[in-house]
Amino acid sequence: MSTEQLDRLKSIRVNTVVKLYTLVLLAEEERHGYELMKLLAEMLGAPIGPSQVYPFLNKLEKAGLLGSRISGSREKKVYYLTPQGYEFVKELLEKSLSVLHTAVKILGKEKVCLP
User: Which residues belong to any copy of the Transcription regulator PadR N-terminal domain (predicted)?
Assistant: First the structure.
């Protein structure tokens, strides 16, 4: 990874639920921007606009965490995590575990764990 990419990686802030969920959705499978916005809106119960998704995708791509390709007859740009992107998401989720542990303590295990 180049010095420029390392500097960009340091500048990435996952400071919103939209950004976190975007990364999780991309870790599941490659997706195009509109699909991400639609899934995020369903997950969060609120409209999600292009300005909430595309600047973050562009930043991730410039940092080398995302790749993209044109797909289908409608030539949609499809985004996918690079190997560095998967490592970034893995580290981020590991750091987020402490928040989940606190949620379990506050809510109680029966409210948090699915059957």
Answer: 23-90
